Every structure is written in C-alpha cells, then in structure tokens.
Amino acid sequence: MGIDLYSVKMRASRKENGEERHISGAEKIVEQDRLQGICARLLERAIHHSKGEADFVNIKVERIKAGDVILRDALPVTVCEVETAEEGQRKLRDLLEQSGIHNGEEILQYMKGTWEMRGAMLLDVDTMQRLEPDRKRGVRATYMDMAGKGDDRSHKNHFQEALVLATKVASHKNIIGEICISDDPDYVTGYFASKEMGYVRITRLKELGCPDGGRIFLFRGEAGEADDCIRYLEHQKMLVRI
C-alpha cells in the first residue's frame, strides 16, 4: 500500500426530549478515487434507517498514511444456531465460562448500561470496574475497514462490519473477549469474540423489533494498561482480510 488512503466516518443522530439519540454510524478506509461515491452512499444510508429519520448527519474525511495501516486476517467464524433469545443468552454465558471468565452472569447485567452509549463499555473482568473515561460516549473502536475494493463496502452488512471490528478489538493483548448485541431493531443476531474462540455468531440474542443493543470490551490486565488499550482501539488504523 504505497498510496495515501482516506478514513471516512459517518454519524447520524436525532434529538429526543433534549437528548441526542444515536441513529446510525459507519466508517470506511478508501482510496481517493472511491471517496466521493462512498460519501454519497453513506449519506443515503444515514437518512434511511430502521431506527428512524436523523436530524443531524456528520461525515468526516481524513487523509491517512498507508504506512500507518496494519493488515490482519479476520477471526475464524463459527455459527451457533439458537431458537430463542433466552437460549442465545445461555450460550453467551457458556462462552464466557469457556473463556475463563467465571462471572458471566454479573457481566451480562452490565449490558443494559450500554444501550444508549455511542461506543462500547470497557470492563475489567476481575475487578468489575468500568474503565472508559466518558461513560456516556464509551470507547469507540475506529479507523478500520475490510481490505479489498472489489465489492461495494458502503452498504450495510452487519456481519462483515462486526467481524472487522471484532478482529481489531481482539488483537489487543489486554482484550480477552467482546460481547455484542446489535441495536438495529431488525437484526437479532449478536456475537462473542476472542483471540482463542474466534468470532462466534449467535443467531438470536434479542427479540425482533427491540431497539436495545450495545457492546462490552472485556479487559484483563493492570489498571495502567487501560490507556494504551483505549489508544489502540480508537487510533490504530487497520484493514482486515475477510
């Protein structure tokens, strides 16, 4: 990659009762010749979303050096078919236990605290302390995209976008797992991801039509290592081969 690339980030929101409500977000890393088209399609995506009509859309374009971008292979993927959200939640607790995280029930209680966050909760699994500096904003894994340009990466693909994010998050040494439930009312699949277990899709973690969703990044390490982890998640540029 000897040419400059561009980071494109889109965020859409709406004011409700004086509070900003997140509607949609996406980001890409693209070559200059694809920049205009990607921006137009992300705008279209922002204003037509199942969570409602946005009254604020922000698109940020930033040139980045190709040499600052690292390349990673995607986590291996497995699928766990479940019939109900309750079965999916049980599977999630089992995966936490298999990963050496023995307080899974307590951790899952924290998911409700992520519903309105723009980013993810960063949770120390041993002390149960929240480590994100801004609890309303959370920690945002950014500067990432799927490698390659043969497909149209501007359209929503829940699975591919989640796999890219999960791969980046799991690559940090202090992250031992990630839990995600989509906040899209029309999408009930979620996942657990880690270095050891890969990306495990759980086909139902909530009921259809439910707008609640969020992420928890599961941290293990010294308290002083949290700042490095946050910097990596929010600033390291990465392309993921899927």
Key terms:
single chain; 242 residues; 6-stranded mixed sheet; 3-stranded antiparallel sheet; 12 strands
What do these coordinates show?
This protein has helices at 35-47, 85-98, 104-109, 158-170, 226-235; strands at residues 5-16, 19-30, 56-64, 69-73, 77-80, 121-124, 144-146, 175-181, 190-194, 198-202, 214-219, 237-241. It contains 5 helices and 12 strands. The longest helix has 14 residues, at 85-98. The strands form 3 sheets. It has a 6-stranded mixed β-sheet with strand order 5-10-9-8-11-6, sandwiched between helices. Strands 2-1-3 form a 3-stranded antiparallel β-sheet, covered by helices on one side. By secondary structure, the protein is of the alpha/beta class. The chain is 23% helix and 32% strand.
Helices and strands in order:
Elements lengths: L4 E12 L2 E12 L4 H13 L8 E9 L4 E5 L3 E4 L4 H14 L5 H6 L11 E4 L19 E3 L11 H13 L4 E7 L8 E5 L3 E5 L11 E6 L6 H10 L1 E5 L1
Parallel strand pairs: 4-12, 5-10, 6-11, 7-12
Antiparallel strand pairs: 1-2, 1-3, 8-9, 8-11, 9-10
